[in-house]
Design goal:
single chain, mainly alpha, two-stranded antiparallel sheet, two-stranded antiparallel ribbon, 13 helices, about 10% strand
């Protein structure tokens, strides 16, 4: 009898557990189906969410769930795949509301955020200086020159570790000169001066790879020194094949303890980074500046422009030559002739030319 009672109690408990579990599963299924199919919209708290570029449907669902906008990520993904909004969700910042049905959310997130839409592209050529970039930003209505320069001055090595390579107390126009990587940048309504500066520094970080850094270390150089050399190559060379040759002349003259005597190291400070004087006079050669390699031995105090990748590579992998001089022979093409001796160099100079 006692055994029978225990069996009946066990069966009753099992039945009650079944009922509870069944009710829970049914409630869960009903809630899932409701979120999956509902077109009802209720008032609720507004929530701002950020959808990053190239987010998958699953990642969007995770963001919505984390912000308390949906309960069932799988229901959202399934409904999205079956809806007209499939493949149309945009990146950007969106304001949604708790109580919205998921179709309403999809519709809002399918509309491109106007403030995140690319409105123009800013092209920064190789060899541009910070001052030239600032002027271009103002001319194209992206930001004022003053805002760009202030943004440049606000960046520290805490933001980008490679800026530790800039010598403490370096007497340079801008500590970021050389690091503003020349490229094409997307500009949106939201783009501020500091955003643009960060984009350029991130681009440098992307292109100045560990492999290039290893080559620099093999030469006993850091990024600041590499960019200083590369910037001179950028301002001197127009022909791809001449870049490694000009690099060799720079290193050969340094090793021979000769003055570099590169005109652009005077033009940079003299024109305040604009290079808007075509040629130097004899008097200009004595221009007082730590950049002037006609009067100061060694390299200029820092980069004299922002070089492109080709010139950075030339600075790291110069051609092996004995050249100590070069001279332009075709202004239009930018073609140079290279010489090992001063006598040979002098014989190539014409009346309207300038030598190195």
């Amino acid at each position: 009898m006692v055994k029978l009672v225990k069996i009946l109690i066990g069966l009753a408990a099992a039945f009650l557990l079944f009922v509870v579990v069944n009710d829970y599963v049914q409630d869960y299924r009903n809630a899932y189906d409701e979120e999956y199919t509902s077109t009802y919209s209720a008032p609720g708290e507004e929530v701002s969410i950020e959808i990053p570029e190239d987010s998958s449907a699953k990642e969007v669902a995770e963001i919505l769930h984390k912000n308390g906008l949906i309960r069932f990520e799988r229901a959202f993904v399934k409904r999205l795949q079956e809806s007209k909004f499939r493949g149309k969700l945009q990146a950007g910042t969106f304001t949604l509301r708790k109580g919205m049905n998921t179709l309403e959310m999809m519709e809002i997130m399918s509309k491109e955020d106007e403030n995140s839409k690319v409105v123009k592209q800013l092209v920064i050529p190789e060899g541009y200086t910070i001052d030239m970039i600032a002027d271009k930003c103002q001319e194209e209505g992206i930001c004022s020159r003053a805002d760009f320069i202030n943004a440049i001055k606000s960046v520290t090595s805490n933001d980008f570790k490679y800026l530790d390579d800039v010598p403490s107390g370096a007497n340079v126009r801008y500590k970021l000169e050389g690091y503003m990587f020349p490229a094409t940048y997307d500009i949106t309504k939201n783009t501020k001066a500091i955003d643009l500066v960060n984009m350029m520094l991130n681009a440098f970080n992307l292109y100045y790879t560990d492999e290039l850094n290893s080559l620099a270390l093999e030469r006993g150089m850091n990024s600041f020194e590499v960019l200083t050399v590369a910037s001179m190559i950028e301002r001197e060379a127009k022909i791809d094949t001449e870049r490694p040759k000009i690099a060799s002349v720079i290193y050969n003259r340094i090793n021979a303890e000769m003055l570099l005597q590169i005109d652009s190291t005077i033009l940079y400070p003299m024109t305040e980074g604009r290079y808007d004087i075509p040629k130097l006079s004899t008097d200009d050669l004595a221009y007082s500046s730590p950049y002037n390699t006609y009067v100061s031995s060694g390299y200029p105090v820092g980069p004299i422009c922002n070089p492109g990748l080709a010139c950075i590579k030339a600075a790291l992998e110069p051609e092996e030559t004995n050249f100590l001089y070069y001279h332009i022979v075709d202004e239009e093409k930018g073609e140079h002739v290279f010489s090992e001796t001063y006598e040979e160099h002098e014989s190539t100079i014409t009346d309207d030319g300038d030598g190195q």
